Structure formats: structure tokens, C-alpha cells
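Appendix C reproduces, verbatim, an entry submitted by the partner laboratory led by Prof. M.T., so that reviewers can inspect both the input and the predicted structure.
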Amino acid sequence: MNRYTTTSSVKFSPQVPDAWIDETKTDAQDGEVGIVGFEIPFNRHFYVFQPPRPLAEIDRDLEACTDCIKQMIEGLSA
């Protein structure tokens, strides 16, 4: 066993009993066995769905913005 196998079996054995490292893959940064780094899927772990606002509320906001834009355009042409 090399130091990677020992480390991975200690770190991952409680969660994944059959975890292993593909010793045919080497990291471009250090040339050692195993690839350095990992991906953390933030959306999967931290995203909390928030339903959209009611359509009537969105329509009111859009109408208010449109009215404000119309007033600014009228102010330019006056």
C-alpha cells in the first residue's frame, strides 16, 4: 500500500467501505498518484428552492417600472 491508499481508506472507509484510488491516473501538478482537488456541488448541497412571487405582484412591479420609464422619457422630450 502507498500513502494514498492508506489515507483514503482511513478517510473514506466509514462512508464508503469499497472506496479506492485509480493508481493509473496521475496529477499534472505534482506527478503523484491520484488527482489533486475535488468538486463540491454547491447547488446540490446548499440550494433552497424559493417559489416565484405571485404573477399579480410581478405585473404590478412591471407596470410601476413602465410608468417610471414613461415619465423619464416625457421629461426628456419636454
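The longest helix spans residues 55-77. Additional entries are available on request from the coordinating office.
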